[in-house]
Amino acid sequence: MFTRILVAVSASSVDTVLESAIDIAKKYDAHISVLHVVDPAPCWMGPMDYDFGLAVQLLETHGREIVTQAANVLDDHSRPAETRMVTLPIAGQTVGQAIASAADTSGVDLILLGERKSGWWHWLSADVASEVRRHTNTPIQIVSSKVIGGSTRRAASRWAEASAADAR
Q: Model pTM?
C-alpha cells in the first residue's frame, strides 16, 4: 500500500514519529524519507540588538542534530532512508508548505507528523498539519504520544486524508 513515507520530525517528535514510520515501513517494505524544517521566523521576535544570523546558525546546528539522531535510529533498525533539513526563507513559506512541497516533489504515499503540542506559547505558531493538508493531496497520519511510566510510548494514530477540496 505504501512504498515511500515522508516523516517530518521536530525536536519533540522524533522518537514517536520514527517509531510509527518504522512499523509502517516494515509492514509495507516502504522507504522512509526524514525531513526537518528550520523556521527562522520566530528569531525576528527577539530584541533589536539581537544577532539574527547567529540565531539562525544555532537553529540549523540543532536541526542537523535532529536529522543525525533520526538517521541513527533508522540505521539501528536497518531501514533504508534518506534524511534532509530545509531552512525556510524569512518570509513567504510556512513549515506546512515546505513539508507539502517535499512530499509532492519526492512522490511519497504517506506523510507522518507528530501531534501538535499544546501550551500558551503555541497560539503564535501555525497548525502544521492543517497547512500540509491545504497544500497536498498526500494522506497524512498524525502520531500522538503520551508519557507512560517515564518513557514515551505511541498512544494513538489518527488518519487525516487530504481530500482534493481541502488541498487548496
A: 0.77
Q: What are phi and psi of 157, to 5 degrees?
A: -130, 140
DSSP letter (8 states) at residue 149: T
| Helix 52-76, helix 14-28: angle, nearest 10 | 40
Domain 4-167 superfamily per CATH? HUPs (3.40.50.620)
Contact 112, 8 (CB under 8 A): yes
pLDDT mean across residues, the chain: 79
DSSP state of 31: E
Q: Which residues are CB-neighbours of 155 under 8 A, at least 6 positions away? A: 144, 145, 146
pLDDT digits (tens, 9 = 90+) for 5-55: 999 998 888 888 999 999 999 999 999 999 999 988 766 555 556 677 788
Where are the chain's structural domains?
4-167
Q: DSSP of 74-138, one letter per residue?
A: HHHTT--EEEEEEEPPSSS--HHHHHHHHHHHHT-SEEEEEPPPPSGGGGGS--HHHHHHHH--S
For residues 96 and 134, the answer to whether their CB atoms sit within 8 Å is yes
